[in-house]
């Protein structure tokens, strides 16, 4: 199944390091990140899961739940998790799916035959409270993900879901944002009392609207 932005993501039940989980129930009314790993006991994956655990509070304050998936069995997950905690100086307490039958990997199109016929690529999905796909990123197995970028994108997604704005290149929380073209300059001035800077009729900036 090939997922596209705006699609409703498929639900599934899976055995994880935190017990059997129904994905929709796990997400509840919040946001979610689902990300795949080629295999347990691999060096890049070890650093990725460690970084995710270290950023636990950052995900939590954004109301984001995290779940990882690997096609290895649950007993290997438990041993690997111990290694991650030891080497990355963290506590991994989010679920890691034991996807031995590749059910989740196939549901989310995480296996790309030209890269590997058996291992998942580094796919990452951000899922909104409406269970729709908001972002997908795919890396090759050799390249570790930037989880600060994942947090940055989640900040943008959550902001632009609530306000008529978009975020410019290299934006980070606190920077000015762009008024979307659907809002006229006249309406923008009323809508954004902090001010609107008109660079071009189609390029208008305003301070981030959800900050005091």
Walk me through the topology.
Layout: E1 13-16, E2 19-22, H1 23-27, E3 31-37, H2 43-54, H3 56-61, E4 64-70, H4 74-88, E5 96-98, H5 103-107, E6 122-127, E7 133-139, H6 147-162, E8 165-166, E9 177-179, H7 185-191, E10 197-200, E11 203-206
Parallel strand pairs: 3-4, 4-5
Antiparallel strand pairs: 1-2, 3-6, 6-7, 8-9, 9-11, 10-11
Helix pairs in contact: 2-4
Task: Provide tags for this entry.
single chain, 212 residues, alpha+beta, Glutaredoxin, Antioxidant, Horf6, Chain A, domain 2, 2 domains, 5-stranded mixed sheet, 4-stranded antiparallel sheet, 7 helices, 11 strands, 31% helix, elongated
Report on this structure.
This protein has seven helices and eleven strands. The protein folds into two domains: 13-145, Glutaredoxin (3-Layer(aba) Sandwich); 163-206, Antioxidant, Horf6, Chain A, domain2 (Antioxidant, Horf6, Chain A, domain 2). Strands 5-4-3-6-7 form a five-stranded mixed sheet. The chain has a four-stranded antiparallel sheet with strand order 8-9-11-10, with helices on one face. The termini are far apart. It has 212 residues and is α+β, with helices and mostly antiparallel strands.
If you average the pLDDT, what whole number results? 92
CATH architecture of the largest domain: 3-Layer(aba) Sandwich
Structural class: alpha+beta
Fraction of helical residues: 25-40%
- Count of the domains: 2
Low-confidence stretches: none
Radius of gyration: 19 Å
Beta-strand residue percentage? 15-25%
Q: Kindly report the spatial arrangement of strands forming the biggest sheet.
A: 5-4-3-6-7
Task: Give the helix tally.
Answer: 7
The CATH superfamily name of the largest domain is: Glutaredoxin
What is the CATH top level name of the largest domain? Alpha Beta
Globally, the shape reads elongated
Q: Helix and strand succession?
A: EEHEHHEHEHEEHEEHEE
Largest sheet: 5 strands, mixed
